[in-house]
Design goal:
disordered C terminus, two-stranded antiparallel sheet, about 60% helix, about 575 residues, mainly alpha, disordered N terminus
């Protein structure tokens, strides 16, 4: 093949000098050269300054060499040879207790994990916005941010008190507005406000899960009302049963407690049940009470799911959620000292997500011949949800199996909702509720019998009481406890959620009006489109209905103004 020569390859050295001289006469080139030279000089100056200043900062003060005694002047030697009074003894250094080091480290670790979990809100916003239609994108943005703000205030006022303070087996009774709360949370040694922040991020996750199945037809007032119920009451009260210091599921199997004959309590390390099953169950109740979006035709009726408007945003949002899960699961150790537990939890989280993504997309490919981006995204999210409860107590092999099964469950769950004509735009119910249940039960199967049943305790782990599942010779005890706890939480959440949704719907505040849904939530509820520079196609409206943009005259006449189909 003949080589292509560029102009710069043909120039001789003298010609290059000539070209340089011509360019230096050009003011634009002189300015460019000045900027380049200035940047290099500034970089060298900064490097030189760092070389001088960093040693001084590290050493604190300049070091001087000691003068040998033979080289000192006679006068100095005579002065120093005179007897002097003995200096007073230095005070003994204060004793440092282990908690003075361990507790701050654990608090910092918990805060870092809390920041990661809170960052998952970015992933949720992107995931939901990408999977919805373009006409309801602004609604997703405002709704997710509003839920976060509302959840923070409610969890400070009474949600945290209901969930984590002592009371009885059903609800906490102290620490309202965080008044009277101790400096640290229980035996963890973690600062109470750091623990509050970490658990607030979990509560916010539960509330956001709920909205995913209700996209595209929920009145914003209705969204505020059910979010108030979820963040303020449903999540913290039911969560207290499993995670509260005296919750009846947390103490189940003990003498004098719930089901003492069982001899085993309920375990949920990071929230497959407490966060994901609760959030998914509320989402299911909301989707059923709302009904499907206008124009949504199911496969039984000759249709199919509505097409997402931006898969790029959706998939990137899913990956951000995966990243945030490294705060969700490893952070639930609440201990930076449990380095082995943190590493095991992080590895198991990764393996489950990878296995679930592969099985989900492969299963869809076998059925359709297509490598579907939505399936692989919801697949790895399903694996993350499933591993959240057992991540501390299973081996890497167990995590792969849990994730692989979860990837198939999410696809079958989508099929089930489609058959039942339940409209879930992003798959919140299959991902969170169904795989939350699966992950909770999977602990009773795959717990390897190697790790303490009480979870993370690096100071004095009780290895005499290990958690062992059915497949590792532990019998049905753990599986039975998990099944009982999961069933109680799921049924209770569904019952309360249906009551809340039906009450809001009875007041006409849950579902948006038909005209509002035709207009699109962005224009009707928020007065702006997420993509104002684009002409939104009429194909985005339900069943090809005319796309209508409300104009000021509608507020007077009440008659909508149609937009021609050509738009």
């Amino acid at each position: 093949m003949a080589r292509t020569f560029h102009e710069r390859d043909k120039l001789s050295f003298s010609e290059k000098l000539t070209r340089l001289g011509a360019r230096l006469r050009d003011p634009e080139w002189r300015r460019y050269g000045f900027v380049m030279a200035s940047g290099k000089l500034l970089g060298l100056a900064a490097l030189l300054a760092m070389m001088i200043l960093i040693p001084l900062l590290l050493n604190g003060s300049p070091v001087h060499a000691d003068v040998p005694p033979a080289d000192r002047p006679a006068a100095v030697a005579a002065a120093t040879s005179a007897p002097t009074a003995a200096p007073p003894p230095l005070p003994a250094p204060p004793a440092v207790a282990a908690k003075d080091i361990v507790n701050p480290l654990n608090t910092v670790w918990t805060l870092v994990a809390a920041f990661l979990v809170f960052a998952m809100q970015v992933g949720f916003v992107m995931l939901e916005a990408g999977f919805c239609r373009s006409r309801e994108t602004v609604n997703v943005l405002v709704e997710c941010v509003f839920d976060t703000c509302l959840c923070g205030i409610l969890f400070w006022a009474f949600g945290y008190a209901f969930m984590f303070s002592e009371g009885n087996g059903f609800i906490g009774a102290h620490w309202f507005f965080l008044k009277g709360a101790p400096a640290t949370y229980g035996a963890t040694g973690v600062a109470i406000l750091a623990h509050w922040l970490f658990q607030f991020a979990f509560a916010d996750t539960c509330s956001t899960i709920t909205s995913g199945a209700m996209i595209g037809r929920t009145d914003f007032i209705g969204d505020i009302l059910y979010s108030f119920a979820v963040s303020g009451f449903i999540y913290p009260i039911i969560g207290h049963w499993a995670w509260g210091p005296d919750g009846f599921l947390a103490t189940m199997g003990s003498a004098g407690k719930f089901l003492p004959s069982l001899g085993m309590n309920f375990h949920d390390f990071a929230g497959s049940t407490v966060v994901h099953t609760i959030g998914g169950a509320v989402a299911l109740a909301g989707a059923i009470v709302l009904g499907p979006r206008l124009g949504r035709k199911f496969k039984r009726d000759g249709g199919g799911p509505m097409t997402p408007h931006d898969l790029t945003i959706a998939v990137c949002g899913g990956l951000l959620l995966w990243f945030g899960w490294y705060g969700f699961n490893p952070g639930s150790t609440l201990s930076a000292m449990d380095f082995e537990g943190i590493g095991r939890v992080a590895a198991n989280t990764t393996l489950a997500a990878c296995a679930a993504g592969l099985t989900a997309v492969s299963y869809i490919y076998v059925r359709t011949g297509k490598w579907d981006p939505g399936s692989i995204t919801n697949g790895f999210l399903a694996g993350l949800v499933a591993i959240t409860a057992p991540c501390y107590w299973v081996s890497p092999f167990g995590s792969v199996m849990i994730g692989a099964i979860g990837g198939v469950i999410v696809i079958l769950g989508v099929d089930l909702l489609e058959y039942l004509r339940i409209d879930d735009p992003i798959g919140a119910v299959p991902v969170h509720m169904m795989n939350g249940i699966w992950g909770t039960l999977a602990l009773g199967l795959f717990a390897s019998g190697q790790y303490s049943a009480i979870g993370s305790d690096p100071i004095s782990p009780d290895l005499s009481n290990k958690l062992t599942g059915l497949f590792y010779g532990g019998g049905f005890k753990v599986l039975a406890a998990q099944a009982i706890g999961s069933a109680i939480v799921t049924v209770s959440t569904l019952a309360v959620s249906f009551a809340v949704m039906l009450a809001i719907d009875a007041k006409g505040l849950l579902r948006l009006s038909e005209d509002g849904e035709h207009d699109g939530l962005d224009i009707h509820e928020h007065g702006i489109s997420a993509y104002p520079e684009y002409v939104i196609s009429a194909l985005a409206s339900p069943a090809g209905a005319p796309l209508r943009v409300p104009v000021p005259s509608e507020k007077v006449s009440g008659t909508p103004t149609p937009v021609p189909q050509s738009l």
